[in-house]
Design goal:
Elements lengths: L1 E4 L4 H6 L4 E7 L4 H16 L4 E7 L4 H6 L7 E6 L2 E7 L4 H11 L1
Length: 105
Amino acid sequence: MVETLTDANFEEKVIRSDKLAVVDFSAAWCGPCRMVAPIIHELATEYESRIVVGEVNVDENPQITAQFKVRNIPTVLFIKNGEVVDKQVGAVPKSSYKTKLEAHI
């Protein structure tokens, strides 16, 4: 399941999680973001119960977007124990996300 993450629930859902969190920073108007979203949803299904997967709308959540210095979208952050352990900027094949994910589970 893909969580809708906001400035208000990010701490609870991601930072305090004991699992690896895969967080997709995107916007509805972003073409490459629409290419990445289905991949993120597939990963959420494939790794269900092993990771936390969420989406942050950068237009609606400026605080968390600024906190993680997201300047380009799509940006996917891999966060473990409250720390960014990896990131992917731009649209890439699913295999690239899986490689990063597997390295940190």
